[in-house]
Amino acid sequence: MNRYLTQRIGFALLTLATLIVVVPILFVVVTIVVRGIGAISWEFISAMPRDGMKAGGIFPAIVGTLLLTVGTALVAIPIGVGGAIYLAEYARDTWLTRAIRLAIINLAGIPSVVYGLFGLGLFVLFLGFGTSILAGSLTLAIMTLPIIISAAEEALRAVPTEFRTVSASLGGTRWQGIRNIVLPQALPGIITGIILGLLRAAGETAPILFTVAAFFLPRLPHSLFDQTMALPYHLYVISTQVPGMPLQIQYGTALVLLTLVLSMNIMATMIRSYYRRRREW
């Protein structure tokens, strides 16, 4: 009886903890949808901003966010997954590799504003990229690398050793075993890390504030060395720096950003589920 009661109490506490986390999130989402849905229109999505961002649309901010996210993915995914493969499959367990893993964990907890200042000093000033899409993408990529590396390494280590042993016994090289057997089996976990990293990059304001974001730029960028508007920074500006900005536009911008992030999450989750169904263990 005591054991049954303890189990019921444990389930009740877990349910309460879940509600404490989920209910506020649902409240925020519902509030944004209810207050922002009235601002959503074709003009709001596809037009250029005008009248000091109090009229027109947010099309340059949407395009800028997508460009920064794609640029971050192109840089962070190959380096992050490659680093994880080296740490999980090739590196020996020495003080150096342990120090590298500790550094990666610590880097994941650094505030994003620090990454923004680092990107400003290295990419904008030292390398001379200026405030540009290239500088912003590289800064966001560095910020997301610890998340991708940690998740990908854990996913690779979770693949049973027997897969590697069978590959070696059939005459395959280590790289052939990793490429053809280990990586496909670890792909769901790797995609999870990539999702987390890119979603963080898509919603960050501080790094792009120093490296790429423009206050008001009613045109699309023409090269990697151009500035661009971005939804997180645009939302920050119209909420704090533009007097008399209608609340509906603020919530509408937040709704577009939320929809964009959720759409990326859903697409990535579908890809992850597809590969998870194909996993053989």
Count every beta strand, where a strand is a DSSP E run of 2 or more residues: 2
Share of helix, binned: over 70%
What form results from the Cα inertia axes?
Answer: globular
Please report the distance between the alpha carbons of the first and last residues: 37 Å
**Tally of alpha and pi helices:** 11
- Per DSSP, what share of the residues sits in E-state strands of 2 or more residues? under 5%
| Total count of domains | 1
| CATH C-level name | Mainly Alpha
> Major sheet: order of its strands?
1-2
What string gives the helices and strands in order?
A: HHEEHHHHHHHHH
Structural class: mainly alpha
Radius of gyration: 22 Å
Write down the CATH topology: MetI-like fold
The description of the largest β-sheet is: 2 strands, antiparallel
Give the CATH superfamily. MetI-like
Model regions low in confidence, pLDDT < 50 over at least 5 residues: none
From the 3D coordinates, which CATH architecture would you assign? Orthogonal Bundle
